[in-house]
Amino acid sequence: MIEESRLRRIHFRAWHRGTKEADLLIGGFFDTYGHSWTEEQAVWFETLIEEQDVDIMAWAIGTATPPTRYEGDMMQALRKLDYIPIAK
């Protein structure tokens, strides 16, 4: 289990990206999956959020190919986009 203080730091960084679109994509992904991550998955996400928002968003929507280090189950989950809340 990931330490609660670490999860709070990751949450803050996931939701304070600079644009609303990036906040929804990256923050929404964290909110949906973050509390169930293994150590390895948390490290993957912490590494990912060091990247530029435009790159992360391009990888998530499929307009750019992510680096090999990000490919796998976590990227596939990020690409589903079903975790983004849609205002009604």
What does this structure look like?
- By secondary structure, the protein is mostly helical.
- The chain has a single domain, classed as Orthogonal Bundle (DNA polymerase, domain 1), CATH 1.10.150.
- Helices cover 60% and strands 0% of the residues.
- The chain is built from 5 helices and no strands.
- The chain has helices at residues 4-15, 20-33, 39-48, 53-61, 73-80.
- Helix 1 runs antiparallel to helix 2 (20-33).
- The longest helix is centred in the N-terminal third of the chain and has 14 residues, at 20-33.
- The chain is globular.
- The N and C termini lie far apart (34 Å).
- 15% of the residues are buried.
Overall spatial form: globular
Oligomer category: single chain
Please bin the fraction of helical residues. Answer: 55-70%
The gyration radius over C-alpha positions equals 12 Å
Task: Let me know the CATH homologous superfamily.
Answer: Flavinator of succinate dehydrogenase
How many domains make up the 3D coordinates? 1
Per DSSP E runs of 2 or more residues, the count of β-strands stands at 0
- CATH domain class name: Mainly Alpha
The DSSP helix count reads 5
Largest sheet: none
Which descriptors would you attach to this protein?
88 residues; mainly alpha; DNA polymerase, domain 1; 5 helices
